[in-house]
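Tutorial handout. Part one gives the primary structure; part two gives the three-dimensional structure as tokens.
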Amino acid sequence: MKTGFKRATVPLALLVLTTLTAAGCGDGGAGSGKVTVWMYPVIMDPKANAAYWDGIEKGFEAKEKGVDLSIEQLPWENRDQKLATAFGSGKGPDVVLLGPDQIPQYQATGALRPVDRAIEEARSAFRPNALEAMSRDGKVYAAPIYHTVTSTLYNRKLLEKAGITEPPATWDAVRAAAPS
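Part two.
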């Protein structure tokens, strides 16, 4: 859990602290020390997920004295509708977990602010392609806190039966190997 705490907390800390210094941010306005984060399940077991984010919140507040952090744990269901409604009404969270595909729509409506200052000192810790995916118009709108590692699994016996000696290495090779 400590590794997960550090991975989630460093970018979260950068964004929350920047939020506190930006005018008009936080539940109580600039200087209030209150920040609301909307977070979504990252662990399949609801109890383990709740315990994880409660630990992140408590650990963050213990380290960052004077910050009243509220991590609201929301479901994935109807996520886009809730975000659009919240941002449209001006009552969105101070910090939210977004995917790179969501950034353009919320950036275009003015719902997001650049986070370049927040990540300035830690910028070299992020992969350039990840930062590029979070950027629009030369400004970074999110800290890339998750990087998914995926693997391709295959059944060697089925490949051999189909006359394929090496697993396909490209999508074109996968399509060529697939049954018609």
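Part three, for discussion. The two ends are 46 Å apart (CA to CA). The chain is about 45% helix and 10% strand.
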